[in-house]
Amino acid sequence: MEAAFAVKEDLQDTAKTGLWVGDCFLYTNNANRLNYFVGGEIVTVAHLDKPMYLLRYLPDSGRAFLGDRDLNIVSYHLPLEVLEYQTAVLRGMFGVRVGFCPCLRLCLCPGLCLCMWSRHFHVCLWCVLA
Asked: Which helix (H) or strand (E) holds 128?
């Protein structure tokens, strides 16, 4: 069984519920957070008030749906463009990164800028903010 898989990254967190969105792993953990894991980095989307379970991600609307034991449903806005863009940044795919810039809205930039800054892509910040 171990020969069937090649480990690329090791997630240093305990995933309670999760699913793959392209190359990103979107999950909830025991600390009641909605996170995604991409390129060896964990990004927190939301701090949850109570234990929630990831039900589904709809890429067309860019929403992750979570539910609790009382059958309450909540959704969080997480555009697919952001996940694809951050994946491209972390892979160093410079040509692809420029292609995504027009799709991103300015309100989505802070998290991306932080990701880019941590990877020393200081010059590329102006491409996103322009």
From this structure: helix 125-129
pTM of full prediction above 0.85: no
109 CB neighbour count, 10 Å cutoff: 15
Give the residue numbers spanning the domain of 30: 2-77
- Pairing between β-strand 53-58 and β-strand 41-47 as defined by DSSP bridges: unpaired
Claim to verify: residue 60 and residue 123 sit in the same structural domain: no
The answer to whether residue 96 scores a pLDDT higher than 90 is no
Candidates 28, 47, 26; CA nearest to 37 is 26
Please check the confidence at residue 31 and state whether its pLDDT lies above 70.
yes
- Structure tokens of 50? 């109570």
Whether 78 shows a pLDDT value over 80: the answer reads: yes
What CA–CA distance (Å, rounded) separates 17 from 21?
13
Instruction: Give yes or no: residues 42 and 30 share one domain.
Output: yes
